Structures are given as C-alpha cells and as structure tokens.
Amino acid sequence: MIIKYFYPMKRENIDQLVKVEYHQADKCPLKGSQLSFFQIVYVISGKGSFTINDNLATYGKGSLILLTPNDQHFLEIKEKTELLLVKFSERYIKDYKWNSINSIGCLLYGASYLSGCILQNKPDVVLVDSIVNSLLHGINHPDLYQEELTLHYVNALIVIAARNISKMRTENIASNTDKRILEIINYIQGNIHDPALLKVSVISQKFGLSETYLGSYFKNQSGETITHYILNYKMRLIEHRLLFSDMRINEIVTEFGFSDESHLNKFFKKQHKMSLTEFKKAKGSIKSKV
C-alpha cells in the first residue's frame, strides 16, 4: 500500500487501487508523463513550477495539486522539494460508496481544466496538513491496521480535493457571493447524470424558488444561464470520456441519460459541428503528436 523512495523515477502504471509514496527531488527539470490514474500531489517543502496540460503554475510548501488520468505534467524545481503523492485508480473512485457525493468523479475530472494549487478553502489547509502528517507517520512507522487507516486518510483527501474543485469551478462567481448559488451548482454537478433532476422546474422546487426567479438569479450570480451551465458542464465531461477513457459511446449514452446514440450525437454535434467519432479522431490525432 505504501512505499518510500526518491527521484529519479520511471513512469509506472498503478498496480493497485490506492498507493501512497514519498518523493524527494533536488534536480530540475523532472519530466512527467500521461498518467493512467488520479494523483494528488502535496508539497511538503520546496519551491518551483508545475506545468499541467501546458498550464504553468508555481508551487510552494502546502500546495495541493491534482492530476487526472492522461494529464501531461512537468515539474521544474527551484529549491529542494519533498512531495507526498497519493495515487488512486478510476475504478476506486467509481466503486467506492461515497455517502453524500453522487458524482465525485465528475468533480475530480474537473481538475483537468484547472492549474496550480486547488487548496483554496482556508479551513481545509489545517485538515490537509494533519492528514499528510498522518500518512507520513504511517510510511515511517507502519503499525497494525495501517492499510485501513491509510484508506481513510486518502478518502478524506479526495473529498477535500472535490470540495475545493467544486468551489473553484464557479470561476465567474465572486468569493463573497450568496451561498445558495454554490449549493445549486453542487446540486447540478452531483446530479449531472440524471436529466430528470436537472429540469429547471425540479431545481426551482428543490431550492424553493420560482422558475423565473431561478433563471434570473443564476445568471446574475454566475454570468451565464442555468441551462447553458448544465449543458457546458455535461459537454466537458463527455469530451473527457471520449478522449481519456476507454468507454464506448453506448456506455456514455447510458451514463448521461440520453435515449440513444443518435440523441447523444445530435447533442454533441450542435456544440462541436462534428460527430462524436470525428471529434475523438481529430483530438486524438492532435494529442498523439504532443
């Protein structure tokens, strides 16, 4: 479950559902590669820059970075750096029974549109520091039931990451905005796979608002209509499935509640002016040249 070693390292596919590693690096640059799993990177010490999918951001002590499957990453070290890496597979996210988060995978996949430290919620800084110290203690002093404890710590990190991503995804919303808009967005993201629960009439009833007021309220708070937000969020998830997973089109149809492949294709083509297979082929050929 837990291993401890130092850079340099070669690319590896995760061979278990969850793995925790301690790394130390003092040379730069360190090249990464496309991952086949999720990876939370916590900076214990050091300074430098992190490039994810051509987006450059600096890192320092306390930075929390999330890499999603197939992200391209590159680490440039300025000061000797210590990292705690928490790796977990897509299967782990899909199969684990999250109590109150219906679509945690959707939130985590959203990190591919972000760059840099995702730890923006100040109260979570202390929580993450405590969890990291506990994981490091388990690495250095393994004890009875260590694997079970490690899984609990990792789950806590995943939920914290999802919570911070959820807040960051509302990029057009001010930090001091009405809390209710964040609750509405969390509801949409958590129920993105169920079209029946995404109807404006259902959402307005859920939050005790009239449909007319919900529409104007959402646009005033976020800068876009609620319908556009739902469609855009769903589209980004579908794009990610096409490019970074081995899911078949009929599986995507089922996941997002479309009636059939023709329905999904019509939805997709309206946005991209090309079919699902054309999009996958075009984007796939571009990525293969990177």
TrEMBL record:
Keyword Transcription: yes
Segments forming domain HTH araC/xylS-type: 182-282
Keywords recorded for this protein, A-Z: DNA-binding, Transcription, Transcription regulation
A GO molecular-function descriptor: DNA-binding transcription factor activity
Alphabetical list of InterPro entries matching this protein: AraC-bd, Homeodomain-like_sf, HTH_AraC, RmlC-like_jellyroll, RmlC_Cupin_sf
Pfam families: AraC_binding (PF02311), HTH_18 (PF12833)
PANTHER family, alphabetized: ARAC-FAMILY TRANSCRIPTIONAL REGULATOR, HTH-TYPE TRANSCRIPTIONAL REGULATOR EXSA
Name this protein carries in UniProt: Transcriptional regulator, AraC family
Organism of provenance: Chryseobacterium ureilyticum
